[in-house]
Each structure stands twice: as C-alpha cells, then as structure tokens.
UniProtKB/TrEMBL annotation:
A Pfam short name: Histidinol_dh
EC number(s) given by UniProt: 1.1.1.23
Name the UniProt record assigns to this protein: Histidinol dehydrogenase
Organism annotation: Aneurinibacillus thermoaerophilus
Sites where the protein binds Zn(2+): 251, 254, 353, 412
Positions annotated to bind substrate: 229, 251, 254, 320, 353, 407, 412
SUPFAM superfamilies: ALDH-like
Gene: hisD
Root EC class: oxidoreductase
Alphabetical list of NCBIfam families matching this protein: hisD
UniProt remark on cofactor binding: Binds 1 zinc ion per subunit.
Length: 425
C-alpha cells in the first residue's frame, strides 16, 4: 500500500552507492588482478561470477546476425525511429570551437575536440535495456567519438541479449565484448591483450560496476553513478488518476529501490491515485518488484498548495518530474531541480525513456541539484587557446610579474620580465 507522507520531513534519498566492505574489497581485488594479469583475470572472473567459460570475448559477425534474426521487424523499425529522434535532439547540443581577436591582435579561444575512445557498459540480467544503448552511444557519436567499445555480461547461455546486440548493430557499434561487472570496468581502464583502454566509461550497472567506476575515476573519466529510477508527479484536480498511477508504476517496476511519489494539493486525487496504484499493481508482470518499490519508497505527499508542492519537488530534485496540472507551462519556471520535466497528460515518462529524443540517463538521488542529463558535452573536451600579441605582453607584462612574485614564483616572473627587458621600448 502506498503511504501518505508529510511534506515537511519527506525525503527520497537512498543509500545505494557505497556498498559493503566486502563488496569494496572484492572490487579492489578484481581491479588489481585485471591490471596485472589482463585477459587471464577477465576470463577467470567471468567464470566465477557469470558461470561462463569464454572462448572469445569479442562478439562475432555471426552472433550479430543471429541476434538480428531473433528480433521482430517492427521492434527493429522502432529502434531506428527512436535513434533518429535521439540523434536529432542531441545534434542541437553540439558546440563549435571559437576564437576572438582583440584590437591589440591577441587571439583567445576554445578548441572543442571529441574524446577518442569511449567504453559503454550495458548491464546484463533483466535490466539489459536496448534503449540504454541508444541513449549512451548516440551522444558519443554526435560528439564525434571515433571508437566506442561496448561491454556487457554474457547471459546463462553465454550469449548477449539480442535486443542489445541488434541496437548496437543498428548504430554501427561493432566492438562488443561479452564481459561484465568490475572486470569489464578494469579491462576498459587498464586495457588487456584483447580490450584496448578507453578515455571514458559511461553506462549504469550494479553495485560492483558502480564501485569499480568510482575507483577508476581519475585514470579515466566516468559519466555518473546512476542510482535506482525515480519519478515525482505534481498533479492537480485536472489530472487523470489512472494516468498518474500508471506513470508512477512505470518507474516502480524498474527496481525494488525505485521511488515513485505523487505530490498534490487535492485530497480527492490523492485517494483516487492510491486506489488506482493498488488496482494496476495487481495486473503487472513485474508486480513483486513494483510492489516492493511502492511499499518501501513510494509515497503520496498531500500539500496545501501547488506552490508548496513545488518546494517539495525542488527539495527532492527528482530524476523525472511530471507536471500533470492545468497549465504546466506556467510552472516550468518555478522548477529548480529535476533531471527531466514532462509537461501535461500526454508526456508520460516512458515517452522520454524510449522515443522523444532527450536522454534517459539522468541524475538520481537528489543529484539533479548539481548535475545534468547525459549529453554531448560528456563526450567533448575543451582546450583553451591563447595567442598573445607583442602589444598586449608589453602593456600587461608588469601586472603578470607582480602577480607571480606575490605567489613567490620567481621563475614565472622572469619568463615575462625577460621579454619585457628584450622587447620593451
Ligand atoms: N539508471 C539506469 O538508467 C539503469 C538502466 C539499466 C540498469 N540499471 C541498473 O543496473 C543494474 C544491473 O544489474 P545486473 O546485476 O543485472 O547487471 P550488471 O551487468 O550491472 O552486473 C552483472 C555483473 O556483476 C558481476 N557480479 C555479480 N555478482 C558478483 C559478485 N558477488 N561479486 C563480484 N561481481 C559480481 C558479474 O560479473 C556480472 O557480470 C541494476 O541495479 C539496475 O537497476 C540502471
Ligand atoms: N527510466 C530509466 C531511467 O531511470 C531508463 C529506462 C530504460 N528502459 C526503460 N526505462
Ligand atoms: Zn524507465
């Protein structure tokens, strides 16, 4: 049963990222072994944790072809159309290098370059989402990343989820390895005989993957450590309770630790949604997962006004926020913290998960206060350009010398002073 909570002390923060001491020790052991032993360690851990003896790590052309045969044509068509929408949306995020020239002749600018090689982690198990392949690979491709290596654990039959493989194939991602867990993160970071190291690792995974990503950050870049899914629906009396309940359950079915919350000032809507959640839950194939999520992390927060509701929303900083109110556009300027904002009755959250175009890799657990959806910038890096003119150096050199000496850095000061002495009139 979904609980009714008080606005004042309500929080959706969950302790999901630190793991136990034993898990952290396991991850450190795996990272060290792969770093020193390479492929042999990857093969050993895959046998230990996935119960698969790998003959070859790299997916063959024949395996791609087999996967294509297993996927219905309409699904493949939907993947293509979703890919087009996601590519169009992310293309708008692309930045250009720039250069300004001052009257003094000095040129200053910023050079934009894509990362050269990126690793994409795709989880195995029941959460092997082809849509996550689209959401992680397309922004990298739009940025111009030349090499994308995908890693994903083998299933019980030693094969990779066919939907995931076909989606990779559709995008032209052909470098795919049947390796998962911390050993995959280690291989992407340090490199092995088979897997070349990457510059950045993106994509969600279980606690072993999350801990390994945190540990290697600095040697490589990482995107974020995404926690369980979340949705907050801010609704008024005009909202359809069945739609609200369905959208809450769409995220609850992801994970027993997913969080689904209704915030409303309308007690009648709160009661109707409560009943709808119970009714719809009973019919869901993933009922056990959704039920646990609703029981432990679901809530209805009855507030005094929509204004107060917005305060709650901004405090929770949810991954997904739905504004199911009469005039959603009127409220958008008041939303401070949310990963993605869905406006009106027809912008149901799964529209964003699969098809509309924005990314579904979003900040969770309150991190929308300071971070953004996965985007093209995550795959770009910037270099500053400084082409100082003689005129500017002579005009400003003394100030630079003063700043250097203030820091006690005489060699810095002399590098400038030497030019002033040589060139000064
Ligand atoms: N936020 C998102 O967008 C999003 C999307 C998809 C999945 N997810 C999350 O990703 C996770 C997927 O988890 P999963 O387990 O199904 O797949 P996974 O690929 O993340 O992890 C499987 C790997 O974990 C390793 N492993 C398992 N048990 C181990 C142990 N005892 N010691 C060391 N390593 C071990 C194995 O090597 C295995 O290959 C879920 O938590 C899910 O919620 C999040
Ligand atoms: N809602 C998830 C992120 O919170 C992403 C996803 C993948 N497939 C379906 N949904
Ligand atoms: Zn989802």
């Amino acid at each position: 049963m979904i609980k009714i909570v008080d606005a004042a002390d309500f929080s959706t923060q969950r302790d999901v990222e630190t793991g136990t001491e034993a898990q952290r020790a396991t991850v450190l052991k795996i990272l060290k072994a792969v770093k020193t032993e390479g492929d042999a360690a990857v093969i050993r851990f895959t046998e230990q944790f996935d119960r698969i003896k790998l003959d070859t790590m790299k997916v063959t052309e024949e395996e791609f072809v087999q996967a294509v045969r297993q996927i219905r044509p309409e699904v493949r068509e939907a993947v293509r159309e979703a890919a087009t929408n996601i590519r169009d949306y992310h293309s708008r995020q692309m930045r250009q290098s720039w250069l300004t020239t001052k009257e003094s002749g000095t040129m200053l600018g910023q050079l934009i370059r894509p990362l050269a090689r990126v690793g994409l982690y795709v989880p195995g198990g029941t959460a092997a989402y082809p849509s996550s392949v689209l959401m992680n690979a397309i922004p990298a491709q739009v940025a111009g990343v030349e090499e994308i290596a995908m890693v994903t654990p083998p299933g019980k039959d030693g094969k990779i989820n066919p939907g995931v493989l076909v989606t990779a194939y559709e995008l032209g991602v052909k470098e795919v390895y049947k390796v998962g867990g911390a050993q995959a993160i280690a291989a992407l970071t340090y490199g092995t005989e088979t897997i070349k190291p990457v510059d950045k690792i993106v994509g969600p995974g279980n606690i072993y993957v999350a801990l390994a990503k945190r540990e290697v950050f600095g040697l490589v870049d990482i995107d974020m450590v995404a926690g369980p899914s979340e949705i907050v629906v801010l609704a008024d009396e005009t909202a359809n309770p069945a739609y609200v309940a369905a959208d809450l359950l769409s995220q609850a079915e992801h994970d027993t630790m997913a969080s689904a919350v209704l915030v409303t000032a309308c007690p009648q809507l709160a009661e109707a949604v409560r009943q709808e959640v119970e009714r719809q839950l009973a019919e869901l194939p993933r009922r056990e997962i959704a039920e646990a999520s609703i029981r432990d992390y679901g809530a209805i927060c009855v507030v005094e006004s929509l204004e107060q509701g917005l305060e709650v929303v901004n405090r929770l900083a949810p991954e997904h926020l739905e504004l199911m109110v009469k005039d959603p556009m009127a409220y958008i300027g008041k939303v401070r913290n949310a990963g993605a904002i869905f406006l009106g009755a027809y912008s149901s959250e799964p529209v964003g998960d699969y098809f509309a175009g924005p990314n579904h890799v979003l900040p969770t657990n309150g991190t929308a206060r300071f971070s953004s959806p996965l985007n093209v910038d995550d795959f770009l890096k910037k270099s500053s350009i400084i082409a100082y003119s003689r005129e500017d150096l002579l005009a400003n050199g003394r100030k630079i010398v003063a700043l250097a000496r203030q820091e006690g850095l005489e060699a810095h000061a002399r590098a400038i002073q030497m030019r002033l002495d040589n060139e000064g009139e």
